[in-house]
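Quick question, first post here. What does this chain look like in 3D?
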Amino acid sequence: MTGAKIGIIPARGGSKRIPGKNLRPLLGKPIIAYTIEAALESALFDRIIVSTDSAEIAEVARTFGAETPFLRDQTLSDDFTPVSAVTIDTLQRLDPDGSTFRHVAQMLPNCPLKLANDIKGSYLQFLQTAAESQVSVMRYGWQNPWWAMRRDAHGTMRPLFEQAVRARSQDLESLFCPTGVIWWASVDVLRRAGTYYTPNVAGWEIPWQRGLDIDTEDDWAMAELLLRLGMSEEPNVPAVQR
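> Answer (accepted):
Ran it through. Tokens below.
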């Protein structure tokens, strides 16, 4: 097996909450273009593939520099198929015997604020930790998850964590939320496990300003605001060798 790296961008045509999301212009540019451009600028990948069931998305992806060598089967484009299955399908199509690619990155286009240096930094940590897989995570902010509560049918509120709800925030450990910005795995591990959530999964932390995952119109408005304000500052990340 070589040390080749493949970047896979899953982008289906159907989207229930934001119709046509992957092609919708975000400040004048299709949202999928942000991820393609960041991947190209990182100069990490031997191939950058967009896996889609939409001929229109495929055409736009090619315009911005990605490859779209096939259209994904509709059975992998429903509301229930895990994204990792789409990534594995791409590997099986392009590298059936597993001899070409060593590492695979899955990058969701609905996390458009990632930078090339984020991709390089996440890969550097992935190599340094020698983890089987790695997911990107964001630190919870002012909405403290330790104080989460459930509300029953009668309106009664009950804490999820009985002891933590009585503690001061500064006395509680930090918790992290996964985000689909960029996930890494060894190709053989992903094929064997079928998921990035392996027993030896690492977490690479990205600032919330660049880790935003767009699923609703409110998320979209936040992404536009962050871009207009220029709040995606370049991180100081060492160069990664190809």
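Residues 236-242 have pLDDT under 50 and may be disordered.
The chain has seven helices and ten strands.
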